[in-house]
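Q: what sequence does this backbone want?
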């Protein structure tokens, strides 16, 4: 199994402000599959994604990614894990404002000895004509495409997406979902998406629904609908 999450628990705060956010979460994901984590606001979706991404530590349980038990890693090893295994996409792109599209992607290209071809990637993501523009000269969808290219250039094994379409309108959201699907198909990248958009559950291989820090539903889709055909 590519990803195995076993009985993880996570709390924030102490005393009266103590909140148990993840209460024994277990799940798995096969290599090369797409998965969505759904659930109400505050249910623990981002906390789970951040734990898998090594951005936050869990209190109990284990998270094994491609054979690596990340809950056991020291801080320096966690940095290497994020560098060597992961790509991140967030709701608000987080591009470097004074770098062009191409330069934003290059920042991550230098993180690996075997990056994907920058120009092919720009082409695949429709960024070639925008490569010399700065983020403020781009639409939200174009900025997110740049963020996807930046996450992908180091050819990560796992792409973690926290509300990747949260700041985009319908058309641009769909364009980004089609791209994520293409990335999964063309590069075989395992993709884990946190979103409030329940339509996405029809285009992914696996659906996890969280409520109050526990998994309520966890199932595989028998059939999946192409992202371009989703309606919401
Ligand atoms: N660093 C933190 N310190 C304290 N509490 C936190 C921290 N991060 C998250 N929480 C709390 O943990 C709970 C779960 O947060 P999380 O962001 O995982 O939820 P979510 O399901 O992703 O919500 P949303 O859909 O609104 O983004 C919330 O009650 C939140 O306030």
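A:
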């Amino acid at each position: 199994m590519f990803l195995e999450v076993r009985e993880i628990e996570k709390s924030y705060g102490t005393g009266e402000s103590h909140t148990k956010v993840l209460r024994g979460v277990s799940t798995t994901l096969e290599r090369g599959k797409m998965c969505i984590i759904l659930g109400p606001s505050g249910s623990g979706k981002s906390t789970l994604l951040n734990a898998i991404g090594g951005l936050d530590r869990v209190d109990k349980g284990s998270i094994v990614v491609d054979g690596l038990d990340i809950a056991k890693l020291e801080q320096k090893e966690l940095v290497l894990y994020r560098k060597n295994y992961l790509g991140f996409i967030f709701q608000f792109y987080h591009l470097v404002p004074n770098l062009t599209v191409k330069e934003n992607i290059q920042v991550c290209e230098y993180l690996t000895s075997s990056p994907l071809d920058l120009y092919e990637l720009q082409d695949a993501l429709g960024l070639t004509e925008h490569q010399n523009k700065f983020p403020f000269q781009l639409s939200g969808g174009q900025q997110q495409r740049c963020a996807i290219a930046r996450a992908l250039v180091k050819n990560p094994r796992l792409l973690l997406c926290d509300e990747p379409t949260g700041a985009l309108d319908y058309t641009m959201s769909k364009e980004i979902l089609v791209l994520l699907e293409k990335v999964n198909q063309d590069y075989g990248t395992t993709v884990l998406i946190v979103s409030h958009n329940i339509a996405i559950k029809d285009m992914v291989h696996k659906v996890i629904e969280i409520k109050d820090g526990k998994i309520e539903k966890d199932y595989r889709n028998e059939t999946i609908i192409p992202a371009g055909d989703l309606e919401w």
